[in-house]
Specification:
single chain, mainly alpha, 0% strand, elongated
């Protein structure tokens, strides 16, 4: 193992841990959003179905995707996670709600922010 490998390994482990913790936080946020759906709403079942779909597809999110979003969230002091919570609160059938077909699609919403942060860091 080279010196670079031994230096990079702990950082990679930290990134893996951060991604796992972030995934767990999203799972808890989905559960909260499911519990918060107004049962009297005519869209309640559609909203629950959309949230269940996001929950079911969360394991399909790639590790790099989770790592990027978790790192951006850490750099923004939790602001990205707050936006995820808001997003989960408005998931449901269009046109009045946000149509998010999967957990990966939800995280993709933040890709432009990640790219912008990278550009800023490079300059």
């Amino acid at each position: 193992m080279t010196m670079i490998d031994t230096q990079a390994a702990p950082n990679f482990e930290k990134m893996l841990d951060a991604a796992d913790i972030f995934r767990e936080r999203i799972e808890r946020a989905i559960e909260k959003a499911l519990a918060a759906v107004d049962p009297t709403s005519p869209r309640a079942e559609d909203c629950r179905a959309a949230l269940r779909q996001i929950r079911a597809t969360l394991p399909e999110c790639s590790l790099p995707q989770l790592m990027k979003v978790a790192a951006l969230d850490a750099g923004m002091h939790g602001a990205i996670f707050k936006m995820i919570e808001v997003t989960l609160g408005i998931v449901g059938p269009p046109p009045l709600m946000l149509d998010v077909p999967s957990a990966s699609a939800m995280l993709d919403i933040f890709t432009p922010m990640i790219e912008q942060v990278r550009k800023i860091q490079l300059h």
